[in-house]
């Protein structure tokens, strides 16, 4: 009975929100609740350099619904980084979905009798599944034997090199860690499993891995890099946060000038620090605001509240537009945590109203936020208390609200995310890019004016 209702839920939402692409409804449901893998659909590699399928790299958080010891075969024999859905009962256009493993999910990826992989919901095949091929650059290792996947994994079907150069966060423990974040746990579980998982990545290793990617990425699929990791409240190797993340950008830009669009995900820092990011060659700045509501920000992001404070965080986001240009400041929020109990909003209406207020605040200043769909990881306080995540209806209505607000302010989809539009988007950890119409992007990686005149009409 319960398993029947998931299909009914999905189809009901597709019917009630026809303006949201069907692809996005399935994608959001997979992102919020995860997918199970039959052994026939695992990547066939444990270390990331063998096999034919590009494996899940655990690029920053676990993004799984179970810990590694609980994942069984999927822990020993990695699942793919992403899957691509097409066709099936809902006639899906090409949809790239980041893999979040949940052995209890009603969605299962497995081979059918003909050997072709499919996505099954409640036992019925609903889409064809493609797996990402192992990229040539993953087959090569660094001089010291480390894999490219460990040092410079790529996601979004190869578009983005994800450089988590600091694998832990200096906000540590219940009183400081963001309540939905498992960065520190993820580091511990990979160490405990004996996997290579470098805490601080040496610049030389990053450059060597990028050299390999540059050499073997002959189709130039890889177009951007993100420098990120945990927050730095003191120093690492004598460097504060701006200098620590910035010095990687400087080295990359000196070695590969303009090869990739440089992005950094960091705290909302004072103007001088933000200027240093820009001077180092970063072109897109992600000072994530996480959750809009004041009470929830204080409860869910206690470290950020204590060290910086919500109002100052927002002030710095707007101030950083003077350095980067408004359209190159793209703060993220974690879509769904607004509804995490016991503190979150009780109804979808309230949660959407609050988030819409935040979108309007930023978009009225020409700043286009983006979001990742919350994955309720089991070792986080919010994931533990809310293993089902947020209601699917919240995610669908958020897509609708996001697009409407973007249109209202005449803004383009943010740069550095690849193309928008169903069937074209590659951004894999939320379907906001799948839900925008084609042709709504501005040129990438430039300091062009933030307002484009509406191409969304
Ligand atoms: S600042 Fe919060 S979300 Fe970011 S890594 Fe630290 S604990 Fe996680």
TrEMBL record:
Signal peptide start-end: none
Family annotation (SUPFAM superfamilies): Radical SAM enzymes
Top-level taxonomic group: Bacteria
Annotated spans, Disordered: 436-457
Name listed for the protein in its UniProt record: Radical SAM protein
Organism for this UniProt entry: Streptomyces zagrosensis
UniProt keywords, alphabetically: Iron, Iron-sulfur, Metal-binding, S-adenosyl-L-methionine
GO MF annotation terms: catalytic activity; iron-sulfur cluster binding; metal ion binding
């Amino acid at each position: 009975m319960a398993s029947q209702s998931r299909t009914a839920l999905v189809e009901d939402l597709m019917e009630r929100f026809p303006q949201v692409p069907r692809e996005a409804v399935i994608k959001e449901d997979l992102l919020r609740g995860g997918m199970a893998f039959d052994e026939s659909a695992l990547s066939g590699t444990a270390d990331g350099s063998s096999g034919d399928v590009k494996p899940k790299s655990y690029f920053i958080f676990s993004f799984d619904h179970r810990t590694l010891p609980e994942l069984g075969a999927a822990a020993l024999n990695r699942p793919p980084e992403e899957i691509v859905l097409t066709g099936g009962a809902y006639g899906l256009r090409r949809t790239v979905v980041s893999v979040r493993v949940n052995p209890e999910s009603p969605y299962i990826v497995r081979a059918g009798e003909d050997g072709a992989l499919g996505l099954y919901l409640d036992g019925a095949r609903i889409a064809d599944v493609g797996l990402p091929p192992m990229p040539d650059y993953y087959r090569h290792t660094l001089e010291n034997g480390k894999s490219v996947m460990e040092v410079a994994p790529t996601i979004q079907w190869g578009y983005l090199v994800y450089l988590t150069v600091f694998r832990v966060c200096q906000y540590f423990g219940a009183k400081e860690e963001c309540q939905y974040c498992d960065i520190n746990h993820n580091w511990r579980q990979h160490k405990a499993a004996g996997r290579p998982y470098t805490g601080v990545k040496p610049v030389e290793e990053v450059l060597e891995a990028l050299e390999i990617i540059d050499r073997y990425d002959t189709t130039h699929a890889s177009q951007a890099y993100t420098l990120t990791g945990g927050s730095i409240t003191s120093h690492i190797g004598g460097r504060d946060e701006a200098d620590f993340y910035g010095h990687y950008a400087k080295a990359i830009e000196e070695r590969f000038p303009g090869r990739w669009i440089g992005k950094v995900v960091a705290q909302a820092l004072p103007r001088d620090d933000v200027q240093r990011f820009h001077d180092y060659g970063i072109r897109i700045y992600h000072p994530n605001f996480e959750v809009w509501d004041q009470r929830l920000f204080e409860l869910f992001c206690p470290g950020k509240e204590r060290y910086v404070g919500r109002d100052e965080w927002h002030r710095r986001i707007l101030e950083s537009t003077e350095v980067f240009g408004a359209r190159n400041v793209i703060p993220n929020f974690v879509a769904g945590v607004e509804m995490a109990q016991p503190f979150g909003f009780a109804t979808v209406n309230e949660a959407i109203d609050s988030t819409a207020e935040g979108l309007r605040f930023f978009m009225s200043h020409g700043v286009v936020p983006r979001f990742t769909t919350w994955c309720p990881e089991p070792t986080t306080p919010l994931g533990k208390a809310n293993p089902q995540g947020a209601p699917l209806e919240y995610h669908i209505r958020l897509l609708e609200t996001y697009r409407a607000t973007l249109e209202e302010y005449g803004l383009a989809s943010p740069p550095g995310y690849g193309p928008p539009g169903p069937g074209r988007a590659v951004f894999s950890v939320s379907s906001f890019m799948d839900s925008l119409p084609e042709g709504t992007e501005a040129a990438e990686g430039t300091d062009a004016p933030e307002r484009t005149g509406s191409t969304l009409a």
